[in-house]
Amino acid sequence: MSTAVIGMIAGMALGFAGYFGGFGAFLLVAALGAIGFVVGRFLEGDLDPGDFFRSRGTRDDRRR
Known about the structure:
The chain crosses the membrane at residues 12-39. This is DUF2273 domain-containing protein. It comes from Streptomyces tauricus. Keywords: Membrane, Transmembrane, Transmembrane helix. By secondary structure, the chain is an all-alpha fold. The chain has helices at 3-44, 50-53. The model has no long low-confidence stretch (mean pLDDT 79).
């Protein structure tokens, strides 16, 4: 399945949630979709857990 089709399905799910459930349901579906996306990237091996916890620079780069 192409990325465009997956994006279309996600957009339709958000649209239905917003129309039938209101703004709260829209936010819930969007948040759960984002969590699912990140978990899927971990399972595919595209992301490492350390990517979220590593510092961007060395200790000397920080301002004191």
